[in-house]
Design goal:
This protein has 938 residues and is an alpha+beta fold.
């Protein structure tokens, strides 16, 4: 897979003609059967190399040995309770990761299944927080072709036979099938949420086949985008002189991944539905009292297409009907007995027995004729159950009810609506694909990185409007929440009360229309870091949600706003130092919404005490303001304003010398959680300045002038100090300390400037400083690493050598690279921006790269070894698109500097006592909530 060419050649276009014959493309040029002109492409016979994971150096291991021992102990303690620790670097998957991924199936938040580019179904994430990467090889599409009265025939699985466990002689299972596809003339084309597989004369030289995979990922559509269903549309073109009888076969095992098919008590049931939709329901009984799952596999019968089913077959010799028997029936007859529809539910499977089903769709294709056959797969698991017992209904149940049998209606609607889905998807993608200013690699990578919103462990629950008035274990009415906020203020502090009450003015958590109730949404930091909505990473990824599903993004911010104003005094051991602290401190933005009981038990991350992190609170303020400015949603601004004030107030404790700047505390107290920072840092300091400006702007728009004055005062003082201590003439030093890496060039040094520009606020620094720092990053962190073909390394010494202070300083982070590129676009450096981001495409997505497509990791080393596959942060590529096409609300905002509109008042005091009281007063409401886990000291 990886060759020396990676760093020497540069390809700008991947036309379909390089992969599929022109004649075939012309024949398929109807009904969206031909692959798009711009897509990610692979041949099916491409080698799927095993991916190489990073390793720590000897010195890094020595530094982390105590952390490792504590983490090992914690993992064992969690396992003893039947739970999986959110971070477990010691347990390896049974299936080694390989360069085999493709576009995942289904919409968002209802469980996901991925499909590799060679056709295998893998990466099973039906149960929250679990991911089984192993493919279920019985799940396949196959084809049977008969010509000239049966004297010429073909029978093959439509996937190359290059998989483990195949080829056993005398096997009654899937080895007995015809794994005859070479894949040399078959290609895969991906443009999320769709994918095309073109079989250009395989297995029959006179039959051209297109399989189009479609899932309902439709921006701004909060109904269909939640559906757990996909459609597979086969287009058949007969170029021969004889009519051909073609039977397509869809086989499916009653399994949710791993060895779940062997657990027993699973039942299959045939069905004939409305509008010709027929198939099999596979009822799966899950382990550990998890909610059951029902799959539906179906095809649509038409005037030209006949659908038959085999409700049950097994993979072993003892089965009543074996996989070999099933295959023999299809070779001989091309269909199953129609009486099978009347067989009713099967007997429950026995432990150790695999229960499979098959759906066949048969048709005649005339010489030089065309035909379309459509299959669908859906799954229904209406309840989400987390490991500490909390259960919720998934979003799609709002439209399909809470029965597992909803899978039947889901496949029906998918087969009837997929053409409309495609129309909406094409309308969304067309302007970007046609934008000639944009490089081709960027266009399809922009869409394909969205795979994470389906395959990133997303959970989307149905929740009534009052769910946003949810604190601890209790639901509060709008009136009660307003009262709670007002009571949280200290009546004796007139300034503080005026600040909040004038801004809130009874508008906290206002009633909204039904259409605004989009439920609650979770997505994982990564499939290896099992924490929901990790906030320091969401900072980078959130541009995708804001651009495509802004109501979901606002609800995530509402969840964190509530979290800021709460506390959880239960004790937690922090593994880096072995010290104890409380789980959640009021005023501090949580690292995440939890693992085993999200929303109720936050901060699953326990390496460091994140209440002492310096980036989370500024990131909250910046995201809230950006979302507020982009949506112009005044009610949202009013709802979250108390939390914004609390987040700013909380940070004052870290400005120990009262110079307006927060100081880092000599440990990795930010998203780079192995990279120590001393004193003022470029990363956190820049975020803090940006947050002060954003808070001041928001305060001004919400009528809270005293708080705007406070933020401006700090900003003016802090900015002067920041530039004096960190600016060295060409970039901002890593920190103000005296360590060996204090003068390192950090790729992410202008993260605050990125958000400032993205929200339409005035630049933090003059243009010379911004462009000079970005140019330095481009020349050193980007271009000095394999000629710019890898992305931006996190840290670089001024000497031009990689900063090897720690594991993370020497890594290239994919999402950070995209963020740096976005900052460059805002600064008018488009050429450097696309060259920087292209390194991630080249190393991660290109055919000459390392094989990280549809599983983009957090980062890789300069030799391409990954850390943490399928990670949230690379969604930051949508920050680039945001920079290229700022929304009208931001473009049309008044251009006068926000800070110039704020006049400082000498009579207004901003002393530390105000900070001490402010956070306590804002958060005191949590104490009065009965048996809630959140408490306070009011």
């Amino acid at each position: 897979m990886v060759s020396g060419n990676l760093f020497h050649c540069k390809k700008h276009s991947w036309p379909p003609e390089e992969y599929v014959g022109r004649t075939t493309l012309q024949l398929l040029d109807f009904d969206s059967a031909a692959p798009p002109k711009q897509a990610w492409r692979r041949r099916l016979n491409s080698h799927a190399n095993i991916l190489k994971e990073f390793s720590v150096t000897f010195m890094e291991a020595i530094k982390m040995v105590r952390l490792g021992l504590r983490l090992w102990s914690y993992i064992r303690e969690e396992a003893a309770q039947g739970r999986k620790a959110p971070i477990d670097p010691f347990t390896r998957e049974r299936c080694k990761p390989s360069a085999s991924q493709g576009v995942p199936l289904g919409g968002m938040g209802s469980g996901s299944i991925s499909r590799g580019f060679r056709g295998e179904f893998r990466q099973w994430q039906i149960t929250p927080g679990t991911c089984d990467a192993s493919p279920i090889m019985a799940n396949q599409f196959s084809i049977f072709i008969s010509r000239d009265g049966g004297r010429k025939s073909f029978a093959s699985v439509l996937a190359p036979g290059q998989h483990e466990g195949l080829g056993k002689s005398g096997d009654q299972g899937i080895s007995s099938w015809g794994w005859n596809l070479n894949g040399q003339h078959s290609t895969y084309h991906a443009l999320f949420p769709r994918a095309w597989t073109i079989y250009d004369g395989e297995p029959d030289p006179d039959l051209k086949i297109s399989c189009r995979q479609i899932s309902p990922f439709i921006p701004h559509n909060y109904q269909d985008s939640s559906l757990p269903a996909s459609v597979f549309v086969y287009t058949l073109v007969n170029t021969g002189r004889e009519r051909a009888k073609v039977s397509l076969l869809f086989t499916w095992a009653n399994s949710i991944g791993g060895v779940s098919h062997l657990s027993g008590d699973h039942v299959n049931e045939p069905f004939i539905g409305e509008d010709g939709v027929s198939g099999v329901l596979l009822h799966h009984k899950t382990a550990k009292d998890n909610p059951p799952v029902t799959f539906a596999v179906a095809a649509c019968e038409t005037q030209n297409v006949s659908v038959t089913v085999l409700p049950c077959f097994g993979l072993t010799e003892g089965s009543c009907i074996t996989a070999k028997d099933m295959w023999g029936t299809m070779v001989q007859d091309g269909q199953f007995d129609r009486e099978n529809f009347n067989s009713g539910p099967s007997m429950p499977s026995l432990p150790g027995e695999t229960l499979c089903a098959a759906v066949s769709a048969s048709t005649w294709v005339e010489p030089h004729g065309k035909c379309t056959v459509a299959f669908s797969l859906a799954w229904s698991s209406p309840k989400v159950k987390f490991s500490k017992g909390s259960t919720y209904h998934r979003r799609y149940t709002r439209y399909y009810g809470t029965s597992e049998r909803a899978a039947l209606n889901l496949v029906h609607d998918a087969l009837k609506n997929y053409k409309w889905w495609e129309e909406e998807i094409e309308k969304w993608q067309y302007p970007i694909l046609m934008d000639e200013r944009l490089p081709e690699w960027y266009k399809f990578t922009l869409f394909n990185e969205l795979y994470f919103l389906v395959a990133g462990g997303t959970i989307w629950i149905d929740a009534p409007n009052e769910s946003r008035n949810f604190i601890g274990n209790q639901h509060l009415s709008t009136t009660e929440v307003n009262t709670a906020f007002c009571n949280a203020l200290n009546d004796d502090d007139e300034t503080d009360l005026t600040r909040h009450s004038s801004t809130v003015n009874g508008l906290i958590f206002p009633q909204e229309n039904d259409s605004d109730d989009v439920g609650r949404f979770l997505y994982l930091e990564g499939v290896e870091y099992i924490m929901w909505c990790t906030y320091d990473v969401h900072f980078y990824a959130s541009f995708a949600l804001l651009a495509l599903f802004p109501k979901i993004e606002l609800n995530i911010q509402r969840d964190f706003a509530r979290a800021v104003l709460s506390e959880d005094l239960r004790k937690v051991k922090f593994l880096a130092e072995g010290n104890w602290g409380v789980r959640k401190v009021r005023g501090a933005v949580p690292h995440d919404l939890g693992t085993h009981d999200p929303w109720q038990e936050m901060n699953a991350y326990n390496i460091h005490d994140t209440s002492k992190w310096k980036d989370l609170n500024p990131k909250f303020v910046l995201q809230v303001y950006r979302d507020f400015a982009a949506t112009n949603d005044m009610s949202f601004g009013a709802e979250v304003w108390p939390a914004v004030c609390a987040a700013i107030d909380y940070m004052e404790q870290f400005d120990r010398d009262k110079d307006g700047l927060i100081e880092n505390d000599g440990f990795p107290d930010q998203t780079y959680d192995t990279w120590t920072v001393h004193g003022i840092s470029a990363y956190c300091g820049c975020l803090w300045l940006a947050a002060l400006q954003a808070a001041a702007a928001m305060a001004l728009q919400l009528g809270d002038k005293p708080f705007a004055q406070k933020c401006k005062s700090k900003y003016v003082k802090g900015k002067t100090e920041f530039e004096a201590k960190l600016w060295n003439g060409s970039y901002f030093n890593y920190d103000s300390g005296a360590s060996s890496n204090s003068k390192s060039i950090q790729a992410d040094q202008l993260a605050g400037q990125w958000y400032t520009a993205a929200a339409g606020l005035p630049s933090l620094f003059d243009d010379f400083k911004v462009r000079s720092a970005l140019q330095k990053i481009y020349e050193f962190n980007v271009m000095k690493i394999r000629g710019g073909r890898m992305g931006a390394v996190n840290g670089m010494y001024p000497s031009g050598k990689v900063d090897i202070t720690c594991m993370q300083s020497r890594e290239i982070w994919t999402g950070v690279t995209y963020g740096v590129a976005a900052t460059m676009i805002h600064a008018g450096m488009e050429e450097q921006a696309f060259a920087t981001a292209e390194g991630i495409f080249t190393a991660g997505w290109s055919e000459e790269g390392f094989g990280y497509w549809f599983q983009t990791p957090e980062g890789w080393t300069i030799d391409g070894h990954f850390r943490s596959l399928i990670y949230m942060r690379p969604l930051a590529i949508w920050g680039m698109q945001w920079a290229l096409s700022l929304p009208k609300t931001i473009l049309d905002a008044p251009k006068i500097s926000i800070m110039d509109r704020i006049h400082l008042s000498n009579s207004h005091s901003f002393g530390s006592s105000h900070h001490e009281a402010g956070v306590r007063k804002i958060a005191t409401k949590a104490k009065c909530l009965g048996n809630s886990v959140f408490h306070c000291a009011c």
